[in-house]
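Reopening closed ticket. The problem is back. First fold of the pair:
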Amino acid sequence: MKKIGFLSFGHWSSSPHSQTRSGADFLHQSIDLAVAAEELGADGAYFRVHHFARQAASPFPLLSAIGARTSKIEIGTGVIDMRYENPMYMAEDAGAADLISGGRLQLGISRGSPEQVIEGWRYFGFAPADGESDADMARRHTEVFLKVIEGEGFARPNPRPMFANPPGLLRIEPYSEGLRERIWWGSGSNATGVWAAKLGMNLQSSTLKNDEGGEPLHVQQRKQIEAYREAWRKAGHAREPRVSVSRSIFALTTDTDRAYFGHDGDSHDQIGMIDETTRAIFGRSYAAEPDVLVTQLKEDEAIQAADTLLLTIPNQLGVDYNAHLLENILTYVAPELGWR
């Protein structure tokens, strides 16, 4: 069995070819798609977070709205850029969204990806401390966030408060029990995967990963997952961790599918530089008839190693078409691979 969800980047555009013309369109369509995905039997509705772009941004209003409209599907992110986050305020938002959804939040967080603007986190009021990099700052924000959502009191109460306080130090409210175990780290390197395991976070293996061995992405990801699980075991955590990978996978069952994605059948991994010093590898897309997809996906070592698969979707093609794409995978591919 494998959990299968969708991952939306939340693009919108005024292009006549887009069915998602505005931020309002994206938000309402995302809620509708999550409802449809739940009805189809999908396991998760996840959203990428980008700032200064016509894409999904601050996620908690959307996650809360989906939580109020659904009852079973997991609701998450992949990922929130922690360079931009006030971890205390984020803990309040996350607690509220998790309570609204009845404990279905699965928050993917990370250092973030290449940005739309230069050092955009500075516009949000954040800057690395002396001797820190922006990645260090993201990890510092993360550690504060993880600590405060554990629910322990840490703030000294006012002796003359407006409202009566419980005894002792105060914690961030609202507190949602169990949320701490549903935090994921989006890892683009083997080292950050090990770091995430030590802190007891689940792993989202990034499709844009540091090229650390020259091997195909799925092999590098499988090795990253193995290193993560070994670090988890050595850390002595009581529960079993979860691991996800994301892929663009399209089962071609109609002429429309073939027109949109038939040209992706010969897709390969891509190599590029994401900054002056970092060589990265980006994963291929899969697009084929269902029986061919089954054979191809059996050979993807990272998908086989993960317990959760997030299907990246072309959200600008509309709710109905994206629901059709999800249904194709759930109906024709997942059962043949033993995922259903």
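Second fold of the pair, where the issue appears:
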Amino acid sequence: MHRSPAVRGRGIRKSFGDVVALDGVDLDVASGQVHGLVGPNGAGKTTLLGLLLGLAVADSGSLEILGTPVGRTLAVPDGVAGFVDGPGLYPSLTARQNLSALAALRGQDAGRAAGVDDALEQVGLTDVADDRIRGFSLGMRQRLGLAAALLTTPRLLVLDEPANGLDPAGKHHVHRVISGLAADGTAVVLSSHRMDDLAALCSEVTVLATGRVVFSGPVGKLAAESGELDYRVRTSDSEAAHTVALDTPGLRVVPGRGGVERPDADVLVVRGPVPAIEELVVRLVGADVAVRELAPVVAPLEAAFLALTGTGQIDEEDLVTKEDS
């Protein structure tokens, strides 16, 4: 089914003095789509989000939002909402008062109270609606920022790290809200450093590195870009598993601390493409070695991100830290 474009950007450039934040960026986001925007710190994500929210203007290139060309003025069409670098809130006011003030500024007098209450309910803040937000956690502030965006019934929702600071229940709540908006036809653009959020929410993703697009397309296609992966292997016989891994074509054993291979290590880490990993399992079973655990050290989506942005791979020392945390 064809979906109309909510965002169409071509050749977008933006500089701050000698610093090039965006260098010829193309971006396409369809209505009803959750589109992820990811990249290392300094990649240009915040700048691009700011352009979508009318907080900045591009130096060159073209940008259409909800079918309307965006010129060189700080403005975007009606129907755009969201936040960047965290929501702007009044700490001395309650959650309800914050939303009521925003609704009044937007001229939403008719049914304002009902709209505020509905937004608070959607993000799960009804029980703390009359608490001053100076005592709110980071996650609660993020949810209130989402509620503020929902007041306008947006057709394009732009969110910067919406799951930042959320506990598992809060993250699940926010994910449900975002997925529901997309199902109703709202386009959502969100930035996140968490690959699990992207996998759970996004149908497509754009990866930025040093202001340029290094990937744009379906999440499944991004995962396929991971190439070689590191896998953690636990077996019934670590020494035999080490020998089998060394003899498996296309597979390498990742050295442990100090660059030393340890056949007696409880965890064997191997690196290679998926077919080589599959061949390892076949050979281990053939050698009467039971495979007790086989899991990627880094999820395929995260591995693809690391490869595309040139930020490296996780070695076994990092693995130990991850497991101990």
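Update: turned out to be a display glitch only; the data is intact. The chain has two domains: 5-222, 229-324. Residues 313-325 have pLDDT under 50 and may be disordered. Please close again.
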